Amino acid sequence: MSPIRCLLIDDEPLARRGLRLRLSQLLQSEPELGPLDVIGEASNGREGLALIEADAPDLVFLDIQMPGLDGFQMLAALPVAQWPLVIFVTAYDHYALDAFRVHAVDYLLKPVDAEPLRAALIRARKLLPNRVDPDADNHAALMNLVGAERGLSLAETQDDRLTLKDGNSLIRIPIQDIQWIDAAGDYVVVHTANGNHIARASLRELEDRLPPERFARIHRSTIVAISAVQRLRPHQNGEYFIDLDGGKELKLSRGYRTQIERFV
């Protein structure tokens, strides 16, 4: 069985390292999936484009939201005949339908779990021997995506909801309902007036996805909705207590004192 030659294209070094580790662990535990060689990595779409043109990989694990050329724009800049098989790996589930319109093998949500990755590799292995070039419909769909229809900001979804992965389920939380978010190891807890939601994600990832004009980082483990803040009370050593609607008390640490002006 010939190895699948693949590239990892993602602007986050930790995401690339995590995916490489997950692939290694999966292939060691299930050698029947066949060999796979990671022949290179790129941190943005332009680097990825150059690697694809130079190395002609069989498969690319491709992030969508990247600086400069994003994943869709990178594919649009590549001659259709040179498209590899693509597995999109991203934190934003609202791209899923778009991904499958443009010749995607699969669509994985970060952080990548073993079982969806396993299924994606099996599908890629089956598709590779009978691979055909993307047709005109694939290319037309892609060109639409990189045009006016791609106007979403990083922090919003089409219906203004935050989507998180909880095991094999997706949680869709109205952004306006979020009061605060705290980190708990590899998980986050999203607190709303109607209850709490636990999901596997990083606080940094959520900070990047939420509208910055509506949320503030107040601690290394806490994000708060600005609209939920009722009062600030000085504490000691430059720290503050923050009282929220409903009586919850949070602490604003010294390292985030620059955020104070956002609440006044």
TrEMBL record:
Keywords: DNA-binding, Phosphoprotein, Two-component regulatory system. It holds the Pfam family Response_reg. SMART domains: LytTR (SM00850), REC (SM00448). One of its GO terms (molecular function) is phosphorelay response regulator activity. Residues 5-125 form the Response regulatory domain. It comes from the Bacteria. Residues 162-264 form the HTH LytTR-type domain. The modification 4-aspartylphosphate is found at D63. The keyword Phosphoprotein applies. InterPro entries: CheY-like_superfamily, LytR-like, LytTR_DNA-bd_dom, Sig_transdc_resp-reg_receiver. This is DNA-binding response regulator. It comes from Ahniella affigens. The lineage of its organism: Bacteria, Pseudomonadati, Pseudomonadota, Gammaproteobacteria, Lysobacterales.
